[in-house]
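Q: Hi! First time asking for a complex rather than a single chain. Here are the components, and I think there are two in total. Is that enough to go on?
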Amino acid sequence: MYVAVKGGEQAIASAHRWLADRRRGDRERAELEVAQIGDQLRLAVDRVMSEASLYDPELAALAFKQASGDLTEAVFLLRAYRTTLPRLAVSEPLDTAGMRIERRISATYKDIPGGQILGPTYDYTHRLLDFLQLAGAEVPPAETRDDVTDAEPCPQILALLNDEGLVEQAIDDGREPMDITRDPPDYPMGRAARLQMLARGDEGYLLALGYSTQRGYGRNHPFAGEIRQGQVEVEIHVEEWDETICVGEIALSECQMINQFGGSREAAPQFTRGYGLAFGHNERKTMAMALVDRALRAEELGEPISGPAQQAEFVLAHADSVDASGFVSHLKLPHYVDFQSELDLLRRLRREHAARQAELADAHEAVKPPSEES
Amino acid sequence: MTRTSRGARQRLLALSSRQHIEAHWGALGRLPDHRCLRGPETGMAMLKGRIGATGNAFHLGEMTLTRASVALDDGTVGHGWVRGRDHRHAELIALADAVAQHAAWQEALETRVLAPLADELAARQRRDAATAAATRVDFFTLVRGE
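A: Yes, that's all I need. Here is the structure of the assembled complex.
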């Protein structure tokens, strides 16, 4: 027999009202505006866009506000919104070599065309709390270099430094990539589909996996060959004009990792590569992504699979925070009937156990030698 | 007078903010009436990256995209696309596309709207480049001993 039980509507409504009240906070203070979040908490916004797999800074800021700053919940909100929109176009591949550079560094070559540009980075800060911010001190505007009238070209370093063939090259053979939002993932999975899954993967999870490769679980000795951040124009092909047109710009972060050698009897040893690309300013994410991308190439490069980060199905099937938090969170839902059946089962097992123990005790009693009389 | 190509105009207007476009739009005076043929409607574009920046394409993720198509009174059709969800922005781009097909409006569009917007875009990009350049590292070598 199954008896459906209803209830809790009033409790749920009141809980949500309390949630909204908590989110609003002290009414004596101005309410946080979505535009302020987009402007002043932009790294949170970038992370939400990246993991939700939808570039829209305003909506990501709204999701962040609505989720009271819970990034995983905000990602869920934006990902859910994504399902309500039709797909109007597929872009041309983004040209990161043509990026308007805000930051561009290389840990492998000091002198590079275009130079090392630090951009608005937390690197080299002292990680000391800045109590002036608590006091609301004025912030001076960014400096500019007035002798610069145009951005110096910043070519992709790894493509540039290949005269000796020391670095593996990434060449387009025109193959159309799989789209995991249209075709269910299947293993083994090609690198393009793996990168799509990693690009929306949870940053903390990818960071831990990337770190594990550095600590020896699938070691591949990486160098940050080039990291760049900036604005890239988006182009789509439109049927109306039969022409490829620019529809705007987006901020991107890219990491080109150089790793230790691959080679075979035919091919001379050369550096191999891992790649990371993400929406917004998401440097740590792209570095972790590049480490994991490289680790997942173990089979292709004939390396032993010894660490968790090299196991594609394990890594990819657990990378999405919407999937993961959904399945973990469902444990909170009423499982009264499930649990009742487990209780019944457990009681039966214990009765059987007790009966067996009693039988054993009886048998033991029967064979026991007569005890000495005291 | 220079004539901006259709693609270059679409790019300029898509890279300019709607507020900037509207600030100059009034200088066109009274425009012919128009109606929307399609949209403005918001959807998404799937964005592709390249493995290692130069290799095979992969799907990076999506972005919001709005498109609009308008027709002027005389039937001239214009199209516009812009990243994001701003319907008015897409409609203005489509309207500019339609208006640009009329000799009477084309010159005013060039000089009163596109030219100042191109200047503003160039100034903004120059400022960004100059800000980034201020964070460029100048290496120097410390020589020890004689």
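A: The mean pLDDT of chain A is 92. Let me know if you'd like any chain examined more closely.
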